[in-house]
Design goal:
Elements lengths: L1 E4 L4 H6 L4 E4 L2 E7 L2 E2 L2 E2 L5 H18 L7 E8 L2 H16 L5 E6 L10 E8 L4
Parallel strand pairs: 6-7
Antiparallel strand pairs: 1-2, 2-3, 3-8, 4-5, 6-8
Length: 129
Amino acid sequence: MRKNFSTDVPRESTVGYSRAVLTGNQIEISGTVSVLDGKAFGTGDAYAQTKRILEIIGEALEHFGASYENVVRTRIFVTDIAGTREAVGRAHGEVFAVIRPATSMVEVKALIAPEYLVEIEATAFLDKD
């Protein structure tokens, strides 16, 4: 069984990807940047970007009947780890402090556009009945 969840981002159809994919009881959420109403959100603010990204991830989880509690792994990509790790970590911790999924934070040269400081991927599993 495979179910795709797509949003209204034109790039999804052009590039050929989904915001999230459910196969069996596993949910994979694509790399997510901070967007609101089709535009970059929180430009220059890694904390605000991370909060918005986690909201988008939460919406994808909800689409499949999951929640943050189902997340077992996050992958965080940042363009300036020294300058943003505290803010990104704080925002991530506000959602996942109790859940504590496996995670990594990696500095990358660039993301899809220069206004994005953070990108996050997530893996979750639905509870088996």
